[in-house]
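Q: I'm a student working through a structural biology exercise. My instructor gave each of us a protein and asked us to get a predicted structure, then write a short paragraph describing it. Mine is Asparaginase. I'm not confident about reading structure output yet, so if you can add a plain explanation after the C-alpha cells, that would really help. Here is the sequence I was given:
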Amino acid sequence: DDEKYDAVGIAHGTDTLVYTATALALALHGKNPEKSGLRIPVCITGAQNPVYEQGGDGKFNLENLFRVLNSSIEEGVADVLVNFWDKVFLGCRTLKTSEKNFDAMESPSYPKVGLIDGTGVHIYKNLLRKKENAEEKLNIAPKFGRGVVSFELAPGIEPSLILGFITSGGVAAMILKSLGEGNVCSEGEFSLLPAIRQSTNEYMTPIFITTKFVGGNAVATHYETGYEALKAGAIACFDHTDVAVDVKVRWLIGNGICSSIEEFRKAMKTSFAGEVTFLK
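A: Happy to help. First, here is the predicted structure for Asparaginase. I'll explain a few features afterward.
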C-alpha cells in the first residue's frame, strides 16, 4: 500500500541486485506501458564490503540510499532506482560490471539518472517517471513464469543442443546470448536457423536474441547472420540488458501478457518500465 509510505529503500546483495531491480521495476510499474501505477520512489543499494568494515563502501552506499530517496521524494520521482558509489541508475538498465571496484555498477545503454558529489544528490528527473503522471492506484503485476532457458552462444554450438531443450518439454522460452549484435551461425552444420524455425513454427516456443556484450544492442539487422535469424522467427531484444531480457520474458509469461510469438515480439519493442529504447 504505497499510500502509507513516502519511499522504499532496500539493501541487497550485489550478485543478484540488478535482477531484483529489474523485477521490481516491471512488477511495480505494471502491465500498462502508457501509465504506471507506481507513485513513490524505490531505491536499491548494496556494497562490495560489509557495512561494518572500516574504509569500505557499505556505510557510504547505505547513507546515500536515504539521501537519494529524500531527493527523489522532493523531485516527485516515482521509479525504481539503484544507487551505488557516487551514481544513481534506472533499476531495469543497471548491470554489475566489477567484483572488486567500489564503482561496480553501470548503465551502459541508458544515461545515469543521478549523481552524488560534495554538493549533494542530483536527480535527473527528466529521465525518470514522476508521481504526477502516475495512475491513482498501484496496480502491480508481480508474477514471474518458469521454463525460461538461456544459452550463451559460442562458435561450434550444436543446433541439436537447442532443439534438445525445446523438444524435451517444459521450456516456455529460450534466450540466445549472441556474438555481437544479434549474430548467430547461419551456414553449415552449425547453422542455428533450422532449430529456430522448428522451435517457433512447430513447437511455438519463442527464441529471443540478445547480446552478451555490455552496452550491446541486439537489433540483429546490421549483419546478414543476424537478419537471417529474425527471418527464421527469432525475436530481437534491442538494447535490453541480458538481465532485463531474462527477467522480462519471465514476467511476460507469469502475468499472461503474451500468448503468441507475435505478442512476444511486440512486447520486446515495448517499454513497460523504461527497460528498452525501440526506435521505429
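A: Here are two points you could use in your paragraph. The radius of gyration is 20 Å. The longest strand covers residues 173-178. It's a good idea to check both against the output above yourself.
Q: Great, thank you!
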